[in-house]
Every structure is written in structure tokens, then in C-alpha cells.
Amino acid sequence: KGGSTANAGPRIGRRPNIPITEAEFRFTTNNGNLYAFGLKYPAVEAKIHSLASPAAKVERVTLLGVAPKPLEFRQTSEALIVTMPPSAGSTQPSTLRIEGSHSLGAL
For all residues of the chain together, what is the average pLDDT? Predict the structure, then answer.
């Protein structure tokens, strides 16, 4: 009928509540494209540090959704910086399709 409660400490399977930030992304690839899932929609810009130049040559960034939309971006030595449209109060994650001259799936 359950485990012992005599020992103090964290329960199995519980993780501490760590707030999600705009800097957190998860990645996957398909057909040579890289997909970045932002866990929290950014206020103005999405910064993806793992895609700083010269690590990758990004040519196009598209925000996916009901009506996919190409976005303005710049690549610096510190990050890929993508100008995001206003979220209209949405708390949903964002999905970016990132295309480049070389297969970004090899990163």
C-alpha cells in the first residue's frame, strides 16, 4: 500500500520546478532541414546559440503554424537571431524550420 514515508528526500519521478526560458530549444531534422522548437515564445527575438556562424550557414527561417511565414534573421558569431512576430498573448511553443546551403541535420 505505498512506499515508506520515513525517509526524507525527493520522490522518484519528481523534478524540481525549473522555469522554462526563451533560450530553451529542442531540435530534430527532416529532409535536410533543421526544426527548432522553442519551449517559450520569445518577446521579440529568438536566439539560438548553437547556430552561430560559422557553425552553420542559414539561408531561410520559417515560423511554422496555420500560415507558415518566412522570418527576418541574422547570424552572428554568438547566435542565430530570428525576429519573431508578436505572439498575441499565446503561451504555445514556437516551431522554426531552418534551411541552409549545407545539410543542417549534420550539426
Answer: 84
pLDDT tens, residue by residue, 77-97 = 999 999 999 876 677 889 999
With contact defined as beta carbons under 8 Å apart, do 92 and 52 qualify? no
Report pLDDT for 19. 87
The number of beta carbons lying within 10 Å of the beta carbon of residue 42 is 16
Phi, psi of 48 (to 5 degrees): -115, 100
Instruction: Give CA torsion, residues 83, 86, 89, 94, to 10 deg.
Output: -40
Give the number of other CB atoms < 10 A from CB of residue 75.
21
Q: Is the pLDDT of residue 58 over 80?
A: yes
Distance, CA of 18 to CA of 103 (rounded, Å): 33
| Per-residue DSSP letter, 24 | -
- Euclidean distance between CA atoms 7 and 105, whole angstroms: 46
C-alpha cell at 101: 546551403
On whether the CB atoms of residues 35 and 25 are closer than 8 A, the answer is: no
